[in-house]
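Hello Y.,

Per our agreement to keep a running log of every chain we model this quarter, I'm adding this entry. I've kept the format consistent with earlier entries: sequence first, then predicted structure.
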Amino acid sequence: MPVKRIAIAWLATALLPLLSCGRPAPAAGADPGPVPAAPPTTLSVAPPATSDGYAAVIRAVMPAVVNISSLQVVTTYEYSPFMVDPFFRHFFGDQFSEFVVPRERRATSLGSGVVVGDRGTILTSNHVVENAREVKVAGSDGRGLRARVLGTDPRTDLAVLRVENASLPKAALGDSERLQVGDIVLAIGNPFGLGGTVTMGIVSAIGRGSLGIADYEDFIQTDAAINPGNSGGALINTRGEVIGINTAIYSRTGGYQGIGFAIPSNMARGVLESILEHGRVVRGYAGLGLQAITPDIARAFDLDETRGALVAAIDPRGPAAAAGLRPGDVIVSLRGRPVASDDDLRTQLSRLKPGEKAALGVVRNGRRFEAGLVLDEPPETAGRRERRRG
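Predicted structure for the entry above:
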């Protein structure tokens, strides 16, 4: 699937050419009747229109969105000049490792980030800073500041940075669970290395998954223009709250084609808090092997639909076994929220921490019941803890 991450890696020489450059009103005198109560405020309600549109919102958030450049050293292995010659390869073949020479190539990755903490704490995309030797941040005032990677989470494609001893304005993380399709959103970032750029669109879809971008996917889809270099930038609502971290585009050409994806702020908040507390992301372990429910499987299990997740395997010593789950069970809800697919359940479970309880709606042999699942630590994490104690 042509889904492409949108931070780009260029050599410095490749960057130079680019950077240069309702109801009807009652009749008069008629009794208007009771006045309806005002609807509750939601994110889908834009602020009153003003002469400057969304300029006030942008002025408040733009300083908290930074440009990120990371120096990456990529090591490749090539044959020595002797082995390039067909004459030598004919006699020696590929068996002599001494003829393979390591080559280092330096590349610069450009992306964006959002300051979300008082101490210069920045959220960005993992692929912007992955394997970076050096990370620099440029704020709206043009200052170049060195940043430190506090932690990364490739499974959600998020990373947390910190710029020490720097007073940077910060943005507020909103509640992405309140988003609705059709809400107006604005994307702020550093496309093509041009610096702070704003685009506007709507929320095209929510809960997008199975895209192959990350292990845990619950993306916000938007038609706000997102381009290479926007990775790690902010997707904000009309109240100036960050409700997503831009991370990828769907494109057949490599450029914007009207479909962009952002990681929901609630998922990003969980990753941020875990990294700040533990230096890594700590997730609960359920001990479940899950499988998608295809139409054939639905017929075989006498299910009315393909929604839900099929339990394909159980760790006999894991939390799922302790909760009484068996292979062949179909999990249809988690904490009262319907489960759309196996990927959806994995993503929901990934947000829970060890020790948290989760009520599962389960269907077994046509009968529905509830199972109480208590998450545990992943086996490898528990192993490391035991070794430290010993």
